[in-house]
Specification:
The structure is a single chain. The protein is α/β, with parallel strands linked by helices. Helices cover 44% and strands 14% of the residues. It has a single domain, classed as Decaprenyl diphosphate synthase-like (Undecaprenyl pyrophosphate synthetase), CATH 3.40.1180.10. It has helices spanning 21-27, 32-53, 72-95, 111-123, 140-157, 167-171, 219-231, 240-247, and strands at 13-17, 57-64, 99-103, 131-138, 184-187, 206-209. Helix 4 links the parallel strand 3 (99-103) and strand 4 (131-138). Helix 1 (21-27) packs across helix 2, helix 2 (32-53) packs parallel to helix 3 (72-95) and helix 3 (72-95) runs parallel beside helix 4 (111-123). The two termini are 30 Å apart. One 3-methylbut-3-enyl trihydrogen diphosphate binds at residues 18-23, 63, 67, 78, 189, 214.
Length: 249
């Protein structure tokens, strides 16, 4: 399947809503956290495959603002798993030249978690391969509200004129300011929704939804998603004729 991919037409940024861990565990008669534990192999394989292909950014939606409303035991287990995984995977990230980043309301994460994350981000900051972006305690509306507050403060202080606010200035105040919009969004487990993920950035992203539950997701599924993306015609509001005219010179 990898051979079918056009390496000159790869998405620069792939974003993933990793969903279905709970259902995966339930199908096996296990606790939800068993599903989360088995999600790590999917993360590892997807990250490695993206790095190998030459995808520049991979964003993984790992924990949403709304996920704080889950049972306390599940939230705690997820946070512990996060710390452990970052510690365990740091060497592999280095080996694969992966730079780690995080978006979201990181101040709400437990102290140990934040520290571990900060260390890993600092230690991988010079890596030049794939940038792996973890969305943690993240939601699109939170991010937008955050940008609005920051801009309002600057307007109130007189450092920015309201007329100067355009898309590019607004984007500079999002968590993703240095990251291009994703061309491809993958959601596993068949759910047909965005669940408050990258609301601004997904404006023209191609959506790919698969029935595969996240713990079963492997590089072959990533290749399938990228292949599907490469068959699409991205029109950005224009007509098909306009797009083809441009492509044929
Ligand atoms: C995704 O799997 C992981 C997180 C949201 C943290 P879920 O835990 O949502 O699994 P389902 O949707 O209940 O199957
Ligand atoms: C979205 O999955 C959030 C993450 C994958 C981190 P959810 O399982 O929380 O989404 P809903 O509740 O089904 O919309
Ligand atoms: Mg879910």
């Amino acid at each position: 399947m990898k051979e079918n991919l056009d390496l000159h037409n790869l998405p620069e940024h792939v974003a993933v809503i990793m969903d279905g861990n709970g259902r995966w565990a339930k199908k096996k008669g296990a606790m939800r956290i068993f599903g989360h534990k088995n999600a790590i192999e999917a993360v590892r394989d997807t990250t490695e495959a993206c790095a190998e292909l030459g995808v520049k950014y991979l964003t993984l939606y790992a924990f949403s603002t709304e996920n704080w409303n889950r049972p306390k035991a599940e939230v705690n287990a997820l946070m512990e798993l996060l710390v452990m995984t970052i510690r365990k995977e740091l060497n592999t990230l280095q080996k694969n030249n992966v730079r780690l980043m995080a978006i979201g309301n990181l101040l709400t994460l437990p102290e140990g978690c934040r520290q571990q994350l900060k260390d890993a981000i600092a230690q991988t900051s010079q890596n030049t391969g794939l940038t792996l972006v973890l969305a943690l305690s993240y939601s699109g509306r939170w991010e937008i509200m955050n940008a609005v507050k920051e801009l309002s403060r600057k307007v109130a202080a007189g450092t920015i004129a309201p007329e100067a606010i355009d898309e590019s200035l607004f984007e500079n105040h999002l968590n993703t300011h240095s990251i291009p919009d994703p061309e491809l969004l993958i959601r596993t487990s068949g759910e047909m929704r965005i669940s408050n993920f990258m609301l601004w950035q997904l404006a023209y992203t191609e959506l790919y939804i698969t029935e595969i539950l996240w713990p079963d997701f492997r590089r072959e599924h990533l290749y399938e998603a990228i292949y599907a993306y490469q068959q699409r015609e991205r029109r950005f509001g224009k007509t098909s004729e306009q797009i083809n005219l441009k492509q044929n010179g």
